[in-house]
Amino acid sequence: MNFNLIIKAIYAAFLTNKIGIKLKKIHVSAEKLKIRRDYAGTLLGKLGIVVEVRGKEKLVKGEQYLLVSNHRSIIDPLIIEIALKDADIYGHWIAKKELFNSFFFGVFTRNAGTILLDRDSKQMNSFFKTTKECVTQGDSIFVFPEGTRTKDDARLSHFKDGSQLIAVKNRLNILPVYIKTDSNDALKQALSKKPKNSTVVIEIGDVINYKDRSMGLEDAYRQMFDIVEHRKKKRSL
Predict the structure, then answer these.
(1) How far apart are CA 47 and CA 50, in angstroms?
(2) Which of 57, 97, 167, 223 has the CB geometry, 3.0–4.6 Å to 66, for a possible disulfide?
(3) DSSP result, 160-225
(4) Strand 174-179 relative to strand 198-204: parallel, antiparallel, unpaired?
(5) Quick one: CA dihedral 19, 111, 94, 205, positive or negative?
(6) Whether pTM exceeds 0.70
C-alpha cells in the first residue's frame, strides 16, 4: 500500500468514526438522513466518484419501500444514499453482526440507522420486531439480498431467502435498484486516480407490489435489469 492510499484510508476511518459518534446523539430520522447523505457526498467526493442515476423519476418522494440492491463494494450504501438524495427516503440498512463489531465500520453501523441480522441466531423474532418498529415510524428498509459482496465475475449472486418475507410482513412495496457499474472497480480506479474521476451508474427499477408472487424476487430482479448469465446451482445447507 503506497503512502497516498494510507492517507486516504486514515481519512476514511477518521471521518467514518467521527460521523458515527455524531449520529449516536441523533434520534430523529430526518436529521440522521441529512448526516448520512452529507457523509456519503463528502467521502465519494474525496474519492472523485460521481454517481449517475437513471430512472430517478420512478421514485416517489417520501414513500416507504423495501429497497433491494446488488452488492459489489463497501461504497455501495453511499452510492445508494446519493441516488435517493432528492426523494427524502430514509431507510434502515440491514447489517450483519460482523459490521456491528468492525473496527472500521462498527461505530458508524451501530448508530447510523441499521438493523442487526444475526444469521447464527435460531430466533428471528427480535429482527422482525425491529423491522416492524422502523416501518411503523414511517421509514423504509434497505437490504442487499445477496447477503454479502459479490467477489467473482458474476454480475449477481443468488439472493438469500427472507427479503420478500420482510416486504410481505411489513406491507412494503419493493424498490429494486441496480448498481450497473462494477463499483469495486470504480473504487480501485478512484484510489489509483486513474482516471481522475470515476462514474458509477445506478438504475432505479419499477416498483414491485409486495403481494406479487408471480415469480421469485431474484428472477424478477434479473428480468427487470436484463441480467443474464450462467448461474451455479445452490449448495444444500
Answers:
(1) 9
(2) 167
(3) PTTHHHHHHHHT--EEEEEE-S-HHHHHHHHHHTSSSSEEEEEEE---B-TT--SS-HHHHHHHHT
(4) antiparallel
(5) negative
(6) yes
CATH numbers and ranges of domains, the chain: 3-224 (3.40.1130)
Could you tell me the CA-to-CA distances from 124 to 100, 116, 128, 172, 213 in Å, in that order?
17, 11, 6, 19, 23
Could you tell me whether strands 66-69 and 91-96 are parallel, antiparallel, or unpaired per DSSP bridges?
Answer: unpaired
User: Contact 193/186 with Cβ under 8 angstroms?
Assistant: no
Give the number of residues written for the chain.
237
Q: What is the pLDDT of residues 24-63, one digit of tens each?
A: 999 888 899 999 999 999 999 999 999 999 999 999 988 9
CA-nearest of 146, 111, 117 to 129 is 117
Q: Contact at 8 Å (CB) between 202 and 178? A: yes
| Vertex 20: Cα angle to 31 and 126 (nearest 5) | 85
